[in-house]
Amino acid sequence: MTELTFLPGRTALEAVGLGVRYRRRWALRDCSFRVPAGRVCALVGPNGAGKSTLLSVAAGLRRADAGALSVFDGLPADPDNRPRVAYLAQDKPLYPQFTVADTLRMGRELNPGHWDQARAERLIRQGNLSLHARVGSLSGGQRTRVALALAFGKRPELLLLDEPMGDLDPLVRHEMTAALMTEAAENATTIVLASHVLAELEGVCDYLLLLSGGRVRLAGEVEDLLATHSLVVGRHEEAGEPREFRDHTVVECRVTGRQLTALVRTEEGPLAGRWETSEPSLEDLLLAYLRSPQAPSLLTPSAEPRLGLRRAV
Amino acid sequence: MSAVAATPAAERGGGPRGLAWLVLRRHRGVVLIASAVLVVAVVQLVFLRLAMSSAIDGLQLRQACGPKGLDCVQTWSGADRFIAGYGDVLHYNGLLVELLPVLIAAFTAGPLIAGELESGTYKLVWTQSVTPLRWVAAKLALPLTASLAGAALLAVVYTWTWSVVPSALLPGRRWYESFDMIGVVPVAGAVLGTGVGALAGVLVRRTVPAMAVALAGYLAVRGVVAQVRPYLIGPSTATSAEMPGLTGDDSWRFERGMLADGARIVEPDCGVGVSPGKCLAQHHADRWYLDYHPASHLWPLQWMEAGVLGVVGVLMGWAALRVVRRVRG
To answer: Keyword annotations for this protein (chain B) (predicted)?
Structure first.
């Protein structure tokens, strides 16, 4: 069972200078980050940030146009890696004329030797879905369930989910999240979950990757990222930024009337002066970075790529 | 890790496995319909051959009429009745054989390949444990095998049915006029259709436009090859002082002209009402020539053309695999 045990030193996903281009436009540019194995990683960013592109490169559906992305220290399209990675595309493509049973049979036929029919069927049964229902006749949420069952049945070590919960009602969303968490906990599966719905992620993910404009803005453990930032509130009547902010990196600073609200990095030590500081919520952090495109990126040590030293790809 | 082998033995029935299962399940409807059409076509072709054979015997159409033989008026009216009774049926069957590769090209380009790329279902398959290259290879190999078998069966039975009719009896159905419907050319057409369809599918990536492109591409290749068909093997040439006719016996006469000191003048323009002899003098030529293929050239020509079509088809299929490989390893 060694391969399934949580190993913080192992790398699930690692990018060095990754760039992907659609004709003239770069969807991803110069992205470098690392996601250690065993994490549940939120991939966040506004629409068009490059989330889907990143996942399709990791799934082996697209090639990188610059740099490299490695999956478990190999190429995503490596035949050895294909069985280890499951991918759920945003549009959840399935064959509409297949029954649910046919769809699961496809999983079995195309993943010889490591298909877990029981696990896939359990997820189907939880949704009270008939195995004989045609996929084309299912609702959006039911189709998502079938697609997830196909991904679970593959027993992946890395599960890539592109906006998986978009078309689920809150109850089913809760159920699916629980199923995902069980999957991650029981099998030490690394999960990368792309979303722009922040509510989907709070309390679910322990790792964060924030993309915007095709670049990495934040990467690392959610806890560490939150702990290295302070939400600052106070009265401020002079022009310009307060003097105490000079020694710190200011992500965002807004003044409404005399009220100042700022998000400040505190790696250099706590903020001096009369300011009221608190730890930001995940939403505060993400919104501040998304509103301030000029703020410098931040990668925690575990999210720094190591590939540069090894050049394994 | 014991759950890995958890697939119950009862579910491991017979039948195809892996990608073969997927391709057959995915196109089950087409497989059933195509098989049914093939069976019906073959059975009625066998009946057609038997019916034509007995009609030819009954109407005494095997021997030529003439001074010592049969009554020509009776023979001619018998021939008319035969043509009226069987000409169209045979013709439509021939069209089916000739157009089968067109259907194969359109199906390969559209539903088989571009449909998956357009609807995104390729993502589903490519992210299982098979490589895109193996998927495309399976997508091409199975339909290619099926269409080769189908086209070969249909072409053999049609050729067998067609060959029972004496060539003089059905004008327009001589060997060089039925060239696309008989022998190995329809089978090579199936290879070409698959290759053209695969390339159109991976390049166009949308179902209906891909089918249109495959159709145009197939017809273009066949058109070009048909243009060079007379020269695929060396033709025979006959020279004569009298102007030769362009029809006559069973040979394919495809070019006629004059020879002036060894130089060829193709189909010279003589003006209206000028006799062939005067025409020869007008052009300072001394003889007529005729390029033709005797009936014995049928099979060499068939194999040459089949070879050309097959090679072009295989190259296009290979190019399609290269395209997939370039986009995705």
So the answer is: Membrane, Transmembrane, Transmembrane helix
Which CATH number characterizes residue A142's domain? 3.40.50.300
Kindly tell me if the per-residue pLDDT of A307 is higher than 80: no
Task: Give kind and range of the element (H or E) at residue B91.
Answer: helix B72-107
Residue B117 lies in a domain: yes
**Both structure tokens of A198:** 């922040």
CA distance A50 to chain B (A): 18
Same-domain check for residues B181 and B256: no
Structure tokens at A200: 């989907």
Residues B130 and B203 in one domain: yes
In a domain, residue B10? The reply is no
Q: Please tell me the distance in Å from B11's CA to the nearest CA on chain A.
A: 10
Q: Are residues A281 and A165 in the same domain?
A: no
Q: What span, in angstroms and rounded, lies between the C-alpha atoms of A309 and B14?
A: 51
Contact A63 B328 (CB under 8 A): yes
Residue in the block written with tokens 């879905």: A129
Judge whether residue B64 has pLDDT over 90. no
Please indicate if any CB of chain A lies within 8 Å of the CB of B119: yes
Using one digit for the tens of pLDDT, what is the confidence trace for A71-94? 998 988 888 889 999 999 998 999
Residue A102 in contact with partner chain B when CB distance is under 8 A = yes
Q: What is the pLDDT of residue B7?
A: 43
Query: Which residues span the domain enclosing B218?
Result: 24-232+298-327
Number of structural domains in chain B: 2
Angstrom distance (rounded) from CA B158 to CA B46: 9
Nearest CB partner across the interface for B123, out of A89, A110, A114: A89
Statement to judge: residues A212 and A236 lie in one domain: no
Indicate yes or no: CB of B129 within 8 angstroms of CB of A1.
no
> For residue range B196-219, what is the model confidence (pLDDT) as tens digits?
999 999 999 999 999 999 999 999
A164 HSE (CA, 13 A, CB side)? 30
Distance from the Cα of A127 to chain B's closest Cα (Å) equals 21
More confident residue, B145 or B5: B145
B125 touches chain A (CB under 8 A): yes
Q: Which residue has the higher pLDDT, B13 or B229?
A: B229
Q: Are A70 and A84 found together in one domain?
A: yes
Residues of B in contact with A110 (CB under 8 A): 18-19, 22, 125, 128-130
d(CA B19, CA B138) in angstroms, rounded, equals 7
φ/ψ of A234, rounded to 5, equals 175, 175
Most B CBs within 10 A among A108, A110, A313, hence the mutation to make, goes to A110
Which residues pair with residue A300 across a beta bridge? none
- Residue B14 in any domain: the answer is no
Quick one: B191 and B176 in the same domain? yes
Domain count, chain A: 2
Question: Are residues A261 and A186 part of one domain?
Answer: no
Across chain B, mean pLDDT equals 89
The pLDDT score that the predictor gives to residue B2 is 39
B124 touches chain A (CB under 8 A): yes
Of A144, A152, A209, which Cα lies nearest the Cα of A181?
A152
Please check whether residue B3 touches A, CB under 8 A: yes
Query: Are B266 and B135 in the same domain?
Result: no
The model's confidence at residue A308, banded by pLDDT at 50, 70 and 90, is low
A82: nearest CB among B6, B120, B129: B129
Domain region containing A284: 224-298
